[in-house]
Amino acid sequence: MSEFKTDSVTGKSEDGTDNSETGKSETRKGNTPIYVWVTPSEKKIISANAKACGMSNSAYLRQVGLGMPIKSILDHKSIADLAKVNADQGRLGGLLKLWLMSDSKLKPYDRARLSMNIIKLFEEIKRLQAVLLQKATSI
Fold first, then answer.
1. How far apart are CA 20 and CA 28, in angstroms?
2. Given this model, what pLDDT does residue 128 score?
3. Which residues of the chain have a pLDDT value below 50?
4. Range of 124's domain?
5. What is the pLDDT of residue 111?
6. What is the rounded CA–CA span in Å between residue 111 and residue 121?
7. Which H helix or E strand runs over 92?
8. Residue 8 lies in a domain
């Protein structure tokens, strides 16, 4: 079993061969660590940034230190919130369509009360659109 030591930037081993095509990744065990002294608040910030990107502190600092782009993961909670708001908006739109199209089913109801409910529905749709916009811009 041969050990592949590659340059993390170029992907080439010490003898100049390219290991990226073989699919074998380099192991970091036995390599030289770099110790960085940080304050507790700096460590919290680094840890939070690494966690937000789905990386360990070491992997995050390695990527930043090598000038490589950080691939961030999307906040799954925000995506779920967007889907929920979108579903709520769809349900409200369906209810509005029912009220506007089903004239025979609505004959027993008071027209003034229906008009008031439709206006409230439009206000709710507008509110949900604002929430949707806020959540979409925060991602």
1. 16
2. 81
3. 1-20
4. 76-138
5. 73
6. 15
7. helix 76-101
8. no
Residue for token pair 């991602």:
139
Measure Cα distances from 72 to 11, 65, 76, 78, 139 in Å. 22, 16, 12, 14, 11
State in Å, rounded, how far the first CA of the chain is from the last one.
45
Domain contains 25: no
**31 φ/ψ angles, rounded to the nearest 5 degrees:** -85, 170
Q: Which tokens sit at 96?
A: 């509005």
**11, 18 Cβ separation under 8 angstroms:** yes
C-alpha–C-alpha distance, residues 89 and 96, integer Å: 10
Look up tokens 């806020």; give the residue.
134
Tell me, yes or no, whether 110 lies in a domain: yes
* Per-residue tokens: 132: 């949707």
Does 90 map to a domain?
A: yes
